[in-house]
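Hi R.,

As promised, here are both runs. First protein below:
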Amino acid sequence: MGKSFLILFFCIVTLFGQSKKYRIHTVAFYNLENLFDTINDLERNDDEWTPNGIQNWTNEKYRQKLKNLARVLSEIGTPENTNTPTLIGAAEIENRGVLEDLIKESKLQQYDYGIIHFDSPDRRGIDVALLFQKKYFRPTSFSSIPLYIYGDSTAVEKEESKESEEEINTTVGNNRVFTRDQLLVTGFLEQEEVSIIVNHWPSRWGGEEVSGKYREAAGRLNRKIIDSLQQINPNAKIITMGDFNDGPYNKSIKVALGAKAKKGEVPEFGVFNPFEEMFNKGMGTLAFRDSWDIFDQIIISEPLIRPDFASFKFWKAGIFRRSYIVQSSGKYRGYPLRHSLTEVGFSDHFPVYIYLIKEVNSQ
């Protein structure tokens, strides 16, 4: 099975009744916060992320950022799983090239990650992508699904928000709001078919009242994708993950997508959000004005929470928060340690993850 395929012995009697062996895969999502290279791309709004830009983004800083991110990704899911995540959804990446540089870092290179990425029409040129360990996941289809939304361009004046650096952009002619596409990937996790949707929903520019309708539209598109997969296979195992720019309690998640906080409330063809309970306990993946929220979530379809473990099922979820990715002093003490002009940090978001486990037949 190889050293990176951990067999777990669970001794929690209340959960499994007896000690059993399980295979485990970690599925993670991380907003990489402005993972830009240093090259000035005339087709992207990346001027600030160049050596001559306001971020003074040098090759040395870029390489340090890659090392920082690779360290985080290599440790998500440990110690329960000795392997790095099998599947990693990523957001705020400039292009495929930065991902190719990332997976070549020493902390990740040995795991032989593949990349699925498409360019999105987002004004800043930031995209979403999926990284996958080739020996455990075999993609069979993938597509980039655009989100067509339109708005009043006069109603998106800059307002301080949790994502105040990001602008909602519209065209003069039709007021289309350009944002990230939703990435759909279907493939086989070992011998089991799984579909993954990677998201980075429209920002909160203009405030929640103005921009909320855009994320509700993103939620409806997400639900439409899930419905289409379930029409093909009613037992489809679907994972939708990303930076939703909304908390588990917002209409885009609760109504448009229809996510439930408790397993017992999830109907057939429904979806379960394990991060709502974490939010209710005061946990968070990002902070604004000392208020924590969970914009980064991994939401799963009903077949993944069924009670048997004869095939891969959801075990538990978590927020990855090691001390080295936390601001240790100053005004933002306790916040995610992000990049500044004086320090190459990690991200303004903490990554999230879930475990999928499957019972090993002892016979």
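And here is the second one, sequence first, then its structure tokens:
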Amino acid sequence: MSRLVMKFGGTSVADLERIRRVARLVNAEVEAGHQVAVVVSAMAGKTNELVAWTDGSGSAAQGLAPSDDEYDVVVASGEQVTAGLLAMTLRNMGVPARSWMGWQIPIIADDAHGRARIDEIPPERLGAAMDSGEVAVVAGFQGVTRDGRLATLGRGGSDTSAVAVAAALNAERCDIYTDVDGVYTTDPRIESKARKLAKISYEEMLEMASLGAKVLQTRSVELAMAYHVPVRVLSSFVEPGEAPGPNYETVGTIVCDEEEILEKRIVSGVAYSRDEAKISLFGLPDHPGVSSDIFGALADANVNVDMIVQSHSRAADTANMEFTVGKRDAGRAMEIVRQVQSKVGFEDATVDEEVAKVSVIGVGMRSHTGVAKTMFGALAEKGVNIQVISTSEIKISVLIDAAYTELAVRALHAAYGLDKL
């Protein structure tokens, strides 16, 4: 009997009626002959409420460490409620089930509270329960440190929990149920001609997730790729018979190895992110060690830097530099930059939060030329100015004025013929 992991996000378990629908979907897979583990998120909005409570409690007194460990205790409780409610609902339907907290399995994580990473998941206890015919309902987003403290995995961490559990159980696949019915070529809210992809490679999905597409959490895709866990993204707003079962190849979007995709598209999708801020440094001394001082200080403060470009300035032996950070980190990044200004000796620094990153992604870029030409031509035709460019083997990203985000997305979607897939 094959094992299956199903994951349901916050909107899918937002109230008791939706939890009942989830239970019906789970029961359908049990009746189809699967051993099932279900990973659940907190009800929609609950985590935000819990975080607000922790914020309202204030800061630790002088001389005491921040209460990151207790923060995790509070915010992890949302998933505990959902897991218990779903297990109860399944039992009420006649399906044997029990809830599992992260510490009971255990999902062993490091002690980076609020952003912990999973170290290992011993599968014996969970596997034995499933072998006995019991549905395992797992509280997502949470693990336990080696010294017995709760640790949460960061926003979207339930996706990571689900893929990690699937890898530990050697599951046939991991189905991620969400409020969309698959992965689209771009955001359908911006481009009505967006098309649902039947399959997408791990690498493409990883790039799309990291570049702004909010379908899957980035670390969950990394795990799936590392352990070759087939992942399917599909809608939870259906009833049994309208989805799963024998329709595996046609329902939702399958995230898989590149070799399993017969027709390689040059570009598979257009992603965007408005969560960007651009920091510009002017009059930098143009000699070795300057960049190390700046980005070393940012790294020490856990500020993640993305796009970077440096150019010569008009003054001799000086350069200008631009880089992007998340909008939330913009203020802290500017403080750090100002702190190193006297050491580095640059003239001035500015921050611009009215920017957006737009990217095109596709494994076909490896073997096709002209992708950048098409991108830049399409943006120029619409009068969209490019501020910063970054590339990888399968993506090209540009930083533009945020006011042109939707225009740029639609122009690129049409330029690569994604509306005709």
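A quick note on the second one: DSSP finds twelve helices and 18 strands in the chain. Let me know what you think.

Best,
J.
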